[in-house]
Amino acid sequence: MDEKTEDLRDIFIDTTGAEEVTASQEETPGNLLGGDEDAAAGERVAALVALVDERYGLDTPLSPEEYERVVYGVFDGESDAEMAEAIGVEESAVFGARMDLHLVRDDDREAPFSLDRLRELMSRDVGLPERVDTLDTDEPTVRHYSRVAAADLESTRANHRFRDEFRDLLTDADLAESHAEGGRDESLLEAAEDIESNVSF
Questions:
Q1: How far is CA 136 from CA 113, 124, 131, 133, 201, in A?
Q2: Lower Cβ count inside 10 Å, N or C end of the chain?
Q3: Do 6 and 38 reside in the same domain of the chain?
Q4: Rounded to whole angstroms, how far apart are CA atoms 74 and 69?
Q5: pLDDT band at 171, cuts 50/70/90?
C-alpha cells in the first residue's frame, strides 16, 4: 500500500483498535452479519433444523450440527462435493440432507426424463419398479429424482417456509429470489393434493 494509505490505516487502528476485528473477519469469510446478528441467525438456523426434524424427520446419518453446516454451505454457494469433503461424509448424504431441508437447487430438477411425468406417477402411488419401467431408466436415477420431486412437494405444502426462512437469514432475499417460481408452484400444488406424504422411494 502507498504512504497515504498506510497513514490512514494507522489513524484508523489508533482510534478504533480495529486490527483484531479485521483478523476476526478474515476467519469467517462471507459473513455479512454482525456478532449479535450472527449469533441470532445461528440460533434460528438450529431451531429450524430441529423443527424440520420434528415435523418430517431427518433421513441421513448427519448430526443436527452437520445439517446446519449444509444450510450455510448451500447459501455460501458450495457444491455437494465441497460440503461433503468439509463434513467428512459421502456426497449422497449431503444431497439427502438438502432434500430433507427443502433446499432443492434448479439443477437438481434437470432429469433425463420428464419430471412432471414422474410426479404424475407418484401422484398415482405407482411403485418404484413400475416408475423405472415407465421412465425407461435405471432404479438409482428414478430414486434420486423421486427424492427431488418429493422434497419439492413437501416444501410446497409448507409454503416454502423452511427454504425461505433459511434464505432470509443467510442472504439478501431480493437477490436470492428465484425466477419463474409461480408456475412451478402451481403445478406442484396440484400434484400435492394426490400424493401421500409418506411416498415410497
A1: 9, 18, 8, 5, 16
A2: N
A3: no
A4: 9
A5: confident
